[in-house]
C-alpha cells in the first residue's frame, strides 16, 4: 500500500513539473501564430519609395500610463499607445535609463513614444547624455527631453530631440492637435555626422531654450528660445521613439540633470 502511494505521488509530481513546460510551449506557439500588428500606410517611415505623411484628421490612440516610479521619475507611459508596447529600466549604479520603444514619430499632430515623467510646476532645467546602442537604427529615431501639458498623444509640448542621424532640434506643439514646429540644427564641415555629447532644455517662465555640448565643452545655448505657456502642473521627463511603427529600438539616457529651477543646465 505504501509503495503504491509513493508511486502515485511521484507520478503526480512528475506531471506538475512538466506542466509549466507545456504551458510555456503553448504560450510560445500562440505568440508565434499571432499576426504582426497592422501598420497604416501613413505611419510607415520615409524611404526611397515612400513618404511619411501626417496622421488622418482626428486620429487618436490612447496612451498606456503607469504610476510606477523609475529612478528620479514618478511614472512611465507609452504615449500614443504604439502598436508594440515599450519598456524601461534604470541602473542606479551607472545612472543610466534604458528606454525601449516602437512608435511612428514624435511629430505632426500626435506622438508615439516611451516617456518617463514627473508632474511638476515652475521653472525647470533638464539635461542628459544620449546614446543609441543599435548603430543600424532608423536615422530619424529620436531621444527627447520633453515638457507636456498632458499624457495625451496630441498634447501641447516643448522638447529637445537628438536624432539618430545627428540632427538636434527644439520642437513645440502650441496647442493640442496642431502641427508641431521646430528650430533645426545640423552640423556640417568638420563636424558632419557628429552626435552631440550632451543636450539640455531650460524652462524659464514661458521661454524654452535648447542647450548643447557638442564635444564635451561646457553646455551653451543654441539659437533663440521659443515662447510657450503651460498651465500648472505639467509633465517633464525623458523619452524615446524608434520612428518605426511596430519595431522596438533602444536609447540610453544618462547623467541626467533634473532641477526644479532655471539656470541649472550643465
Relevant terms:
seven-stranded antiparallel sheet; eight-stranded antiparallel sheet; 2 domains; mainly beta; Jelly Rolls
Give an account of the 3D structure:
By secondary structure, the protein is mostly beta strands. It has 2 domains: 1-34; 46-259, Jelly Rolls (Sandwich), CATH 2.60.120. Helix content is 12%, strand content 42%. The chain contains 1 helix and 17 strands. The strands form 3 sheets. It has an 8-stranded antiparallel sheet with strand order 1-2-7-16-9-10-11-12, with no helix packed on it. Strands 3-4-17-8-13-14-15 form a 7-stranded antiparallel sheet, with no helix packed on it. It has a two-stranded antiparallel ribbon with strand order 5-6. The N and C termini lie far apart (78 Å).
Summarize the structure.
The protein starts with a helix and ends in a 7-residue tail after the last strand.
Estimated helix fraction = 10-25%
Q: What is the level 1 CATH name of the largest domain? A: Mainly Beta
What is the CATH topology assignment of the largest domain? Jelly Rolls
Spatial order of the strands forming the largest sheet: 1-2-7-16-9-10-11-12
The dominant shape is globular
- Count of strand segments: 17
Biggest sheet character: 8 strands, antiparallel
- Rg value: 22 Å
Portion in beta strands = 35-45%
Which sequence of SSEs, written as H and E, runs from N to C?
A: HEEEEEEEEEEEEEEEEE
* CATH architecture verdict of the largest domain: Sandwich
Query: How confident is the prediction overall: mean pLDDT?
Result: 89
Q: What's the N-to-C terminus distance?
A: 78 Å
Unreliable stretches? none
Query: Structural class of the helix and strand makeup?
Result: mainly beta
Count of DSSP-assigned helices: 1
Give the total of domains.
2
Amino acid at each position: 500500500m505504501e509503495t503504491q502511494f509513493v508511486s502515485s505521488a511521484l507520478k503526480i509530481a512528475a506531471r506538475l513539473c512538466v506542466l509549466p513546460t507545456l504551458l510555456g510551449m503553448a504560450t510560445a506557439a500562440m505568440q508565434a501564430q499571432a499576426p504582426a500588428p497592422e501598420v497604416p500606410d501613413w505611419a510607415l517611415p520615409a524611404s526611397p519609395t515612400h513618404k511619411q505623411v501626417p496622421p488622418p484628421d482626428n486620429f487618436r490612440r490612447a496612451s498606456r500610463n503607469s504610476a510606477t516610479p523609475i529612478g528620479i521619475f514618478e511614472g512611465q507611459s507609452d504615449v500614443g499607445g504604439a502598436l508594440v508596447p515599450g519598456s524601461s529600466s534604470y541602473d542606479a549604479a551607472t545612472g543610466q535609463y534604458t528606454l525601449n520603444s516602437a512608435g511612428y514619430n514624435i511629430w505632426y499632430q500626435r506622438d508615439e513614444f516611451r516617456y518617463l515623467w514627473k508632474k511638476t510646476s515652475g521653472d525647470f532645467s533638464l539635461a542628459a547624455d544620449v546614446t543609441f546602442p543599435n548603430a543600424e537604427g532608423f536615422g530619424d529615431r529620436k531621444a527627447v527631453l520633453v515638457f507636456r501639458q498632458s499624457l495625451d498623444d496630441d498634447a501641447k509640448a516643448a522638447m529637445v530631440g537628438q536624432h539618430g542621424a545627428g540632427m538636434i532640434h527644439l520642437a513645440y506643439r502650441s496647442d493640442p492637435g496642431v502641427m508641431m514646429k521646430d528650430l533645426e540644427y545640423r552640423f556640417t564641415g568638420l563636424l558632419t555626422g557628429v552626435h552631440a555629447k550632451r543636450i539640455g532644455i531650460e524652462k524659464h517662465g514661458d521661454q524654452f531654450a535648447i542647450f548643447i555640448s557638442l564635444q564635451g565643452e561646457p553646455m551653451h545655448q543654441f539659437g533663440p528660445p521659443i515662447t510657450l505657456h503651460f498651465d500648472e502642473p505639467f509633465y517633464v521627463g525623458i523619452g524615446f521613439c524608434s520612428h518605426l511603427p511596430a519595431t522596438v529600438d533602444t536609447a540610453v539616457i544618462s547623467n541626467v540633470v533634473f532641477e526644479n529651477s532655471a539656470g541649472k543646465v550643465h
